[in-house]
């Protein structure tokens, strides 16, 4: 640059450490640059205001601002009296509400930097007016020098993205608290504690940032070791107290920042507790083993990837923090009667029934404003709204993810309550023997081992010389084992058996087949191959890729995803097509040649091979009952030892065991589908009566098999009285569902034929049940609502060991109707049964329910029943649909049992 020889113009002014100084400094800069181009003057004023803000917040000393003007350069300098407080640039998100100052300087200034002396620190920026190319510049940052001895603190499994979000939030809280204190609102925080909190938070940020700069990039979690001042324990505890105070003020809307979401709050507490505890001599505790509430999960918010949401087979819808849908997959759209692209941009309320919309808007606003969720991270039975207006019962599970710019995304999985997951697969004794033979490579004499290898010509040449004799597992870092030659055979066999056991445990550890396969693929991609892919054929012959996993820190490419594949045809000549028609296992030592790409499926598989950057692969069929129903692909990249023919026996043993587990799960699922159809057929249509409002709900267990013995019923007997029924047959399987259907049908027949008091109807039902099935036991409440349309009404009822009905008046008073209690059905059919009669005031609500709604493990029944009363009282005047759904939301999240409930409300005719 060619500067003129005119002496530079210098203006300086000192400002006190108060928020008002920011505006004063901005006016000073504009005055000093009077006559300079307005855009330059405004940029300089903006830079100074940001740097003065930083100095006021973090240095808390007097601030000197200088402006130097030459013909072609404007230089601003902001100095404070805390040279030991080094700059700590923050990771910047476009939507962040703090941490913008230094990032803004990087964007606006031609050059920038920091100079530190004995008594002061100066942050400077230059704006070049002639458009010349400035030399590189940057912040010289360092961990603040400790004035006392240090102690090493280990933060084990620190989640990277969650930590950044947590620190952003901490900076926002402290900034707002400082501004509030300047306005005279301290919220009980002493000024010296606020200064300590700022300093300590900056030290933490600087230490972690410096440590991360020295570490290689790793996915998700880091273990960082910080050299932290040994005497900083009290300061860390002060920071925690100050942040808790600020968080409470944010939840009460007394600060201009939103409160933290649960996982951010949980991480902040863990980090500060770890620092304070280890500085006091305690051991480290990893973040990944810390107990958390369901709403505070996951351990690390997954980075938002719309491709993963739209490619999955589970109905999934994602919304942003403006309550608008930003992604939806085909299964979700099909279930609700839409096209997936039609949902994008719509309000989430378009999929919520009318009676729940107001509650959803209030709950969503409460989550954003208070950070207190009600159903986040929990499985809750709720209705969704179909496009044609009907209700679709689903079980809703919502978790948060993070976009690249730090904004939350709420991802909801909607599991239909009429679709049943498979059970934990099992292996019968005879199949276990077969699996053991496969694992050890021993078979009965004469039993062939079906296998096909690709010829040298198809593989592209002979096997490489010097190739390994294919150990059972590659020597990856996770599985490097020292062994002598004399023990090699035993070690290989032991590792084979351990791998088979891991696969069995992965399949048996979940009720969802696809989740189990995902776990199996994860095990195989860690222990046996860099990539693992499973493709399955359904009953109609449609091929679906159900899981893809790989070893390594990178996310899966969007092109390598799960979902439907091109159809399998007889003309398919590629490896996958051949295996699905019975060939294999096949050994591939290079990308399948072009002549094997005769169909769309062949081309798709070649593209998969290329995207995996595979050097070698084994493709093996999954067989059961003499038929192939899927394929397993294991691939190794060029950084791994290639597969050889010696690997094929082990892969064959793996797929045989895997196929057994998958097939048993599928067989079990078929039986569950029978139970599903039975259960769906038994859910009654409630009678439509002018003087009785009625609503009912059934929600299968969120953790156990989704078929059980809970039922509700209502019908009008010939004399005009309205029968109401709730019952629960012991068990949660097809047998329980069948027993329930028998009891329900018998009860209906006896009640309609005899028209007797409830206790007599239950006595006859017990006798019939005892005669037909001496093993079945059940609880039941049978009641009759009596009275003309104009009232008054009474409820005559009898209970066979069931929980008592709950009466809630229109004014919100609650009481249990505990009369008429008798033995369970199936205990003693000759025992007399008591009855009871209770008045039903107009606009009161009688709730009949099963134990899954209220009972909790390790909790007394009295506590559970008291909680139900507390939940029903404020709902006394709500419509019955709202009444029932609110009870499910408030009480049934993650219930380990089925839930049935029936609500009845007598309402006088309008002219009465």
Q: How does this model look, in words?
A:
This protein has 912 residues and is an alpha+beta fold. Helices cover 36% and strands 22% of the residues. Strand 4 (111-116) and strand 5 form a beta hairpin. The longest helix has 35 residues, at 648-682.
Strand content: 15-25%
Cα separation of the termini:
94 Å
Shape type? globular
Q: What helical percentage do the residues reach?
A: 25-40%
- Biggest beta sheet attributes: 6 strands, antiparallel
**Total number of strands:** 29
| Rg computed from alpha carbons, rounded to a whole number of angstroms | 35 Å
**Low-pLDDT stretches:** 1-6, 91-99, 295-299, 419-490
Mean pLDDT: 78
Main-sheet strand order equals 15-14-13-18-17-16
In DSSP terms (H or I, runs of 4 or more residues), the helix count works out at: 22
Structural class, judged by helices and strands? alpha+beta
Q: For this entry, what is the oligomeric state of its chains?
A: single chain
